[in-house]
Write a structure and sequence with these properties.
Two copies of one chain form a homodimer. Chain A contains two helices and ten strands. By secondary structure, chain A is mainly beta. In chain A, strands 4-3-8-7 form a four-stranded mixed beta sheet. A two-stranded antiparallel ribbon of chain A has the order 1-2. In chain A, strand 9 (114-117) and strand 10 form a beta hairpin. The longest helix of chain A has 10 residues, at 45-54. Chain A is globular and about 40 Å long. At the A-B interface, strand 2, strand 3, strand 4, strand 7 and strand 9 of A face strand 2, strand 3, strand 4, strand 7 and strand 9 of B.
């Protein structure tokens, strides 16, 4: 347990480890109601701080090289319900309350909408909203 | 939907995108029975192929720079139940049947055993096995 100090109440001062992935943490988003895994994103230290500050999930977009509050375009924000880190402190699991019918910019409840069946990837989900209606001019980039 | 070809049966020929993370995919492991997220690991193309071939989760260990079948030391292998990819094809969600009381090398059911409470990280889980008994001489490296 490097860089951890534990007291008698199991409270640890843990520094998250942003070093293993070039300044980023892998972040798993799970629906607090259904337990479904909705997406994986990445946070740098600033995105993590903004998430704590606002109570809503803020990612770092690798493709746009900037912070990105999930749902800023679609309105489908992700409210933090609880947050865990792992034994290596280089990943986060965030349980969220969703504010819309789906998180995926292609109109699905979950970004994980393609299931492997007989060596193919099958679109296994129904669309829950129309991405063209929701994103109109500006397409929200997922990562 | 770049690099995807969809036919009338929603079958897509999808190439997973190993390019966005230096040859790796982020892989979320979820317990098929409980829906609990157990861990996050990484796969390169070879680890992915070995996972498909064996039916058990094989990661690429970044710290050891080699393939690593999860549970090869502890016996706590992860049998693939189903597998999904996301809209960017750069992450996997694998639903697994577990073969032991926990996946974490620190003796917990899930690697995500630290929950954020009042600005601290609290060990929120009980240990489900003794890591010193399970790993004896060789410590299985988690990532």
């Amino acid at each position: 347990m490097n860089n951890e100090v534990m007291n008698s109440e199991n409270v640890m001062q843990v520094d998250l480890d942003f070093g293993k992935l070039d300044g980023l943490l892998a972040v798993v988003i799970q629906d607090a109601m259904t337990q479904r895994v909705l997406m994986v994103g990445f946070m740098n230290a600033e995105a993590y701080a903004r998430t704590l500050e606002t109570g809503f999930v803020v990612f770092f977009s690798r493709s746009r090289n900037k912070l990105w509050m999930k749902g800023e375009t679609s309105g489908h924000k992700l409210q933090v319900v609880s947050m865990s880190t792992d034994c290596d402190r280089d990943a986060l699991l965030i349980s969220v309350k969703t504010a819309g019918p789906g998180v995926c910019h292609e109109g699905f409840e979950s970004c994980f909408s393609r299931t492997r069946v007989n060596n193919n990837w099958i679109v296994s989900d129904p669309q829950t909203f129309s991405p063209t209606d929701v994103y109109s001019d500006t397409k929200e980039v997922v990562k």
